[in-house]
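Hey, quick one: can you model this chain's 3D structure?
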Amino acid sequence: MERPEHRRWEQVSVVDLDDQKLPAVALDRDGYATAVPATKQTVGELRSGVVDNFATGGTTKAFSPSKASKRQIAVHDETGTRYGDRGTTTFAGSTNPYKDTYAVRTSNGVLLMFSHTHTQSDAVAGPGLQIIPGEDDRAWLRDTGYTSIKYTFVCNDAATIPSRERPRLIGYTCARTNTSGLSIGSGPTARG
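Sure thing. Here's the predicted structure for all 192 residues.
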């Protein structure tokens, strides 16, 4: 976001929050929020927990129950079974180019903003079957049949880590950044 009065750019991260009420941010004597360094281990665990929500439906129980976690688990449950016995959908973590994490102290722990990257891979279950891209996918792929399609998503996530509880995912926003596929009879294609 550009601040015209200062003629400089400021970095902004946006996450759709499922919880409308944020925890109270702890302020110092001058009224400023206190930035907290997020350890690589903590952020790695949070990213792994989010990917696990998509990939397995949250079997590791990395987060306390929340609307955001339930939405991710619903993506796993609904998308993973949409082809029935005619195809498969799997989710996996992917190389995340956005390593920065932002954290501030709250009255009861820490509020973190971080990013993760995951893939969704759809494949037909056998010969003679094909995946036809929907309207939203045709911007990425031609209007032809595919035996497999791989989508890449970059997501911004927000979580709280209360002092003595498991982390709680309070929101996330994902955007597709790439799609590629193996089309019927013509070999791999990619759009990005």
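One thing worth noting: Helices lie at 40-56, 67-79.
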